[in-house]
Amino acid sequence: DYYAMTWNDEFDSFDSTKWRFMQGKTTNGILPEGDTRYTNYTDTPKNHWYEDGKLYMKATMESDRYDSPEIRTDHSTWFKYGLIETSVQIKNGHGQGAAFWLLGNSAQDYYAEIDIYEASGNFAKFTPLSWVSKALQGQGINSGTYYCDFQGDIKVYDGGTKGDTYFRFEGDDMGEYFHTFGIEWTEDSMTSFVDGRKFIRINTTVDERAVATFNNYMQIILAHGGGGVTAGIQVADETSDWENNFSCFDYIRLYQTSIGEIKYR
Fold first, then answer.
1. Residue 138, class by beta-carbon neighbours within 10 Å (0-12 exposed, 13-18 middle, 19+ buried)?
2. In the chain, where does DSSP find H-type helix?
3. 54-69 exposure pattern, b = at least 16 Cβ within 10 A, e = fewer
4. 48 alpha-carbon distance from chain centroid
5. What was the pLDDT predicted at 107?
6. So what's the pLDDT on residue 22?
7. Tell me, what DSSP letter sits at residue 31?
8. What is the percent of the chain with per-residue pLDDT over 90, rounded to a whole number?
9. Residue 207 confidence (pLDDT) above 60
10. Model-level pTM greater than 0.85?
11. Which among 53, 94, 111, 201 has the fewest CB atoms less than 10 Å away?
12. Any idea what DSSP says for residue 170?
């Protein structure tokens, strides 16, 4: 059963039929104590633009806020199962974090956040990591539980260990070149890839929570944020380079077999 491309964006220009920008203040990026600025979603040209068939995203620091772009497909496209990947160059310094992830419907009892990558800090840490989240609290399952902490079939490649979800590049290789990051999502597993190499595979059938979580539709999200300290982002300081750090996306592509599904809104 072969894969065929069922959805893609080559980033020649902004396509509002696929993406929408998040807007306004966000509580996602928790700021360190003493920082009087707030984190803010924006679609301004200084924070995103298209050039030579590529989408650029960057964070900026203003006197009262950190401006960051984030785009989602929640108004247009949700999918289930497939191989999804992006080719991206990430220059990422203190106080900034880049991410490509999938997010389920929070109205469901169980929903997933699949972090295809979270890049932060010193160009060296990527976190292709799967989470299990519980939409309704008070039922014995905490929201945002690391899936890698569950007892189950977790296989790590390239000499890694169970629970080690950081992919480490040599030197500044992450920021100097384009790399591909993706996952293959099937009915029973989630496998992360970096530049075509398997990195980590997680069995998504270890219990009823996993089965409920990883068999529902998910939206696609791209972001390059600033100012927060979540996801290992280093605290912004006088060394933060807001001018020369960015994410540059060449494409994002989804391939599916006959079991894959796409739901348009």
1. exposed
2. 173-176, 208-213
3. bbbbbbbbeeebbbbb
4. 17
5. 77
6. 96
7. P
8. 42
9. yes
10. yes
11. 53
12. S
- Given a cut of 50, is residue 143 above it in pLDDT? no
- Asked if residue 65 lies in contact with residue 26, where contact means CB atoms within 8 angstroms, the answer is no
Task: State the alpha helices, DSSP H only, in 99-176.
Answer: 173-176
Tokens 């609290």 correspond to what residue? 137
232: Cα separation from own chain's centroid: 14
Q: Is 1 helix (H, G, I), strand (E, B) or coil?
A: coil
Rounded CA-CA distance 231/88 in Å is 19
Q: In the predicted model, is pLDDT for residue 257 greater than 70?
A: yes
Quick: pLDDT tens for 58-105.
999 998 999 999 999 999 999 999 999 999 999 887 888 889 999 888
Which residue is associated with the tokens 């068999």?
Answer: 215
Residue 185 in tokens: 């999502």
More confident: 224 or 136: 224
For residues 171 and 129, the answer to whether their CB atoms sit within 8 Å is: no
DSSP string, 188-246: SEEEEEETTEEEEEEETTSSHHHHHHTTS-BEEEEEEEES--GGGPPPP-TT--TTT-E
Structure token pair of residue 148: 């890698």
Q: Which residues, 6+ apart, have CB-to-CB distance to 178 below 8 Å?
A: 87, 88, 89, 248, 250
Q: Enter the tokens of residue 31.
A: 């700021």
pLDDT over threshold 90, residue 19: yes
Residue 135 confidence (pLDDT): 38
Question: Strand pairing partners for 118?
Answer: 99
Q: Write the single-letter amino acid at 87.
A: S
**Tokens representing residue 73 in the block:** 């497909």
